[in-house]
Amino acid sequence: MSAGATLTPALLPVHSDVLGPLTVAPDQVVEFAEGLYGFPTATRFALLPTPREGLYWLQSLDHTALVFLLVDPFPFFAHFHVELGDADKSRLATATPEDILVLAIVTMPTRPGERPSANLHAPLMFNVRAGQGHQSIRPDNAFGIREEFDL
Q1: DSSP per-residue codes, 32-64
Q2: What does R_g of the chain's alpha carbons equal in angstroms?
Q3: 45-67 exposure pattern, b = at least 16 Cβ within 10 A, e = fewer
Q4: What's the pTM?
Q5: pLDDT tens-digit profile of 27-72?
Q6: Cβ-Cβ contacts under 8 Å for 2 (sequence gap 6 or more)
Q7: Is 124 in contact with 104 (CB distance < 8 Å)?
C-alpha cells in the first residue's frame, strides 16, 4: 500500500426477505444491546435511509425477515419532544444532542382509508457516532403507540 492510501471499510452484504439483497456500510450498523421490545434476540440492525427524506428502514442483521419502517417524528408531530433521561444517556453512551437521532416505528394501514401510525410511546434513539441504539419507553409522555399521521 502506498504512503498516502487510505483503507475503505468493507461493505457488508445483507439479505432482507423484504428489501432483497443489500450492501451495508459499517457506519450504518447499529447495536441494540437489549434488542427491541418483543424482539430480544434481534440486537444488530442496519439503519438505511429511504429515497424519501425522514424515512428509514431498520433491517435486522440477525433475522432476515425482520425489518421496520421508521419515521422522523418531529416534522409530523409538532408537540412531540424527548427529554433524555439518565438511563437513555447511559445506554447511548452520550448526552450530546448532535450525536442522537430519534425515530419512531411506523405501522402501515391494513385497510383502505386508514392512515399510518407511529409509536411515539417507545421511540428508538440512536447514537449515530457510536452505532448504538436503544428503545426508550416514555411512560409519562402524552403520546401513544399508534399516533396517526399523513405520510
Answers
A1: ETT-BTTBTT--EEEEEE-SSTTEEEEEESS-T
A2: 17
A3: bbbbeeeeeebbbbbbbeeeebb
A4: 0.89
A5: 999 999 999 999 999 999 999 999 999 999 999 999 999 999 999 9
A6: none
A7: yes
Question: Which domains, and CATH codes, for the chain?
Answer: 12-148 (2.30.290.10)
What pairs with residue 104 in β-bridges? 71
Tens digits of residue pLDDT in 102-137: 999 999 999 999 999 999 999 999 999 999 999 999
Instruction: Please count the CA atoms within 13 angstroms of the CA of 123 that sit on its side-chain side.
Output: 24
d(CA 76, CA 65): 28
Using CA of residue 121, residue 126, residue 127, residue 133, what is the dihedral sign?
A: positive
DSSP letter assigned to residue 102? E
